[in-house]
Amino acid sequence: MATITLPGKKVLSSRAREALNGYLFISPWALGFLVFVIGPMIGLIWLSFHRWDLIGDPRHVGWRNFERLLRDRLFLKSMEVTIIYGLGRVPLGIIVALGTALLLNNRRIKFIGIWRTIYYMPVVLPPVAIALVWMWIYNPRYGILNSTIQQVFGVPGPRWLDDPALVLPSLMIMAVWVAAGRNMIIYLSGLQGISSELYEASAIDGAGYWRQFFRITLPLLTPVIFFNLITGMIDTFKLFSQAYIMTEGGPRNQSLFFTYYLFQKGFQQYQMGYASAMAVVVFIIIMALTLLVFRWSKAWVFYEGELTGGN
Amino acid sequence: MVANIALNAPTRKNALQEQALSYLKVAAIYAILLLGAVLVFFPFAWTISTSLKTEQQTLAYPPTWVPDPVQWENYPDALTARPFGRYYVNTTIITTLSVIGQVLSSAVVAYGFARFRFPGRGFLFLVLLSTLMIPFHMLIIPRFILFKYLGWLDTFLPLIVPNFFGGAFSIFLLRQYFLTIPLDLDEAAKMDGANAFQIFMSIILPLARPALGAVAVFEFVSTWNDFLGPLIYLSSDRNYTVSIGLAAFRNDYFTAWHLFMAASAVAMLAPLVVFFLAQKYFISGVALTGSGGSKG
């Protein structure tokens, strides 16, 4: 109340104090951002113009690392493999998760809590343990998958992870098993947020289930699908433990995921400069892809705010 | 959907047919959900089954689901083949400190963004959001070099300390939650002479328990399961985490699947127990933000 009677100095100082408090509270993040994000980013760019094996002094090599990248067959392969995997796994994951969520989003289905718990379980497991378990399932000779195929169909099953054509699909199936539960919950909460009035109104107009799905459900879920698409893409470039544990990038480099190749170059061959150049290029590609998806999303992502004119 | 059926049913016979059809539909949905649950459980069941078999049994054709004899010794055998007890302790230390650091620092920063006006707030928050989209694996090399210069390699510090500076995802989640806490409460406390820090401790934190719980469980899972970080930063066996210990164990033996499955089952135990004890935080956290547990 004193602030009203003394406008000049007092208001300013209470505002300044508020700002000061604000800066004080966010300072841990700001500091961490500088030390663990901005600093390493500058370091990454600097390193990408150098040659360094961690032992001697870094030597400036200009654009040579980047020129070498364009001719590096394995680097191009790692990009190809990562992108193909993403293009398969991300839509597959969205379909499975959305499909399960649609099944659960029915008033007559009971025990939703239990279903959610069951489906979510694999999400919390250590990737290394998951990788070992699925390696054993996929084992061409003794694995349960091929033993079952042999028993039921009387023919030997495929070689899964050892088959250059099947290694990526095999890893995609495993990834869907791991992550479907999380995305399912995201979709389910999206579905539960859709007002039932919309469905009732369209039911009066005689719209059937599929018509409602394409006219109401899907458009209103586009923000969630969009979110899923972006995070799925970024996750693809993080893939590491599968390659490290299960395939070592093989067979015939058919699962040489980008992060695994980066690890090989940086931490097994100690080519810090070259590996940094790889990271810089992929960094730019991912950011460009993300921006592209953001722009493209304007054409098909529907935000409910648009309906009411936003705020 | 019930209203839908009623509206579309001009005759009694039609209504009966519709009802029979919808019972069938519900039964079909249950069948699909059950199949999904079986598919989820199947790798777990196969892990436990294999972990109790003798080596010969794991190689038998046709494979059996019930081990005979039940080889309980696989567990002590696997867990002493490498010092998994030590790995469990290491992982527990790293994870506990990371969770504490992440929750405390993120809550402090989120409070700053949610409750104070200051020049540049919008811009800084946008910067924070944009870091959610950055693929941080790209920074492993400079970070490794940074920690090397700090002399932190082969210690737990590179895995713990960054968590004390808040995580973008946690800050975002907490800030959204703090915004839903009525400002009147702050004002009332201010009248009573509480300062900003006291309001944070006595009002914001107690009311934000669901969101703090979600941040804690996500951080637990991502730190406990982290593989690339410990692989790069830790080099001596006595510092290993469960994940890299498991990877090393696999390289020691190569085909001892009964032992690998026993060790894997034990590695899965801690996150599963935490999940079952705190599942409401996982589910509400995921629904709240559309992500979770995937720091990578």
Concise account of the structure shown:
The complex is a heterodimer of chains A (311) and B (296). Chain A is an all-alpha fold. Chain A has helices spanning 2-5, 7-48, 64-71, 73-104, 112-120, 127-138, 144-153, 167-192, 196-204, 209-236, 241-247, 258-268, 272-300, 304-308, and strands at 50-51, 59-60.
Describe this structure in words.
The complex is a heterodimer of chains A (311) and B (296). Chain A is an all-alpha fold and 311 residues long. Chain A is built from 14 helices and two strands, in the order ααββαααααααααααα. Chain A has two domains: 2-48, no CATH class; 73-305, MetI-like fold. In chain A, strands 1-2 form a two-stranded antiparallel sheet. Residues 1-9 and 307-311 of chain A have low confidence and may be disordered. Chain B starts with a helix and ends in a 7-residue tail after the last helix. Chain B has 296 residues and is mainly α. Chain B is flat and about 75 Å long. In chain B, helix 5 packs across helix 9. Chains A and B meet through helix 2, helix 4, helix 5, helix 6 and helix 7 of A and helix 1, helix 2, helix 5, helix 6 and helix 7 of B.
Features:
A: 311 residues; mainly alpha; MetI-like fold; two-stranded antiparallel ribbon; 2 strands; globular; disordered N terminus; B: 296 residues; 16 helices
Q: Biggest sheet of chain B: strands, sense, closure?
A: none
The coarse overall form of chain B would be: flat
Average of pLDDT of chain B: 88
* Content of β-strand of chain B: under 5%
Query: Any idea what the radius of gyration of chain B is?
Result: 26 Å
Q: Which oligomeric form is depicted? A: heterodimer
Proportion of beta-strand residues of chain A: under 5%
Q: Largest sheet of chain A, if any? A: 2 strands, antiparallel
Radius of gyration of chain A: 26 Å
What is the topology, as strand order, of the major beta sheet of chain A? Answer: 1-2
